[in-house]
Amino acid sequence: MTTPWTEDHMPDQTGRVAIVTGSNSGIGWEAARVLATKGATVIMACRSTANANTAADQIKALKPPGKVVVMKLDLGDLESVHAFATAFRQDYHRLDLLINNAGVAKPPYRKTAQGFEQQFGINHLGHFALTGLMLDRLDATPGARIVTVSSLSHRSGVIRFDDLNWERNYHPARAYAQSKLANLLFTYELQRRLLVAGQSTLAVAAHPGWSATNALRHSNMMRRLNPIFAQTPKMGVLPTLYAATAPDVRGGDYIGPTILELRGYPKKVVSSASSHDEAVARRLWTVSEELTQVKYGLH
Length: 299
Description:
The chain has a single domain, classed as NAD(P)-binding Rossmann-like Domain (Rossmann fold). The chain is globular, with a radius of gyration of 18 Å. The chain contains nine helices and eight strands. The chain has about 300 residues and is an alpha/beta fold. It has an eight-stranded mixed sheet, with helices on both faces. It starts with 16 loop residues before the first strand and ends in a 7-residue tail after the last helix. Helix 3 (about 80-90) runs parallel beside helix 4 and helix 4 (about 120-140) runs parallel beside helix 5 (about 170-195).
């Protein structure tokens, strides 16, 4: 029997630089903790620097060999994304891991600073812009990876090109599913473009199964069922960490939990047929570049 993969199996990360978005709690905090424990310099990229500093202090109290650095990043404001990228580039010339983890799930209808529906704007467009602005640092770093965190909810997702911002008939769960499907379409299209461009950076995806995190705070039903079905963030982070560091990961892989993809140790899993629709992925890519005004230069 193969030994289940845990954080103890993660290779040494000394000398590596990682950005983890939304790392002040839940899956993101666990990712930052483990990476710092393995020796990485971890940029905790968070909207609230006050919350992030408290979270960083909790990691520092563990006396990890790596460093944790708090930087402000509001994925709901593209100006903040650009400001973060500028600040990062001033201090760092390499980027080994970009973990696109932050997200919102099923909130009441709200818009981002640029007028996008919040879930599509933060979960997809914010990370699309951030990744594009970090691409040269990633390309300059041997063995770099981009890990984007999706969800089982992607299976019910549909990209509503005629109403991406849900101006009509907003449905929180369907809008969330659209954003999580977008995460996978983006990952697979990015990997195809990286390959054609001859870049060695890998684009991979992961999902945490059913994990008890703050992302579920807007769903009363999910919170009530958490004690029965949900796993801890410490377990839920394992697919993300596997995708980020396991040596057998390949570009375009998708990693999730073992048991019905709800809980358990990480393994390679298969996403929906919709997530592999290359025509939809190309169209979404073009729309995303237009909406964010971030051009990748990958054709």
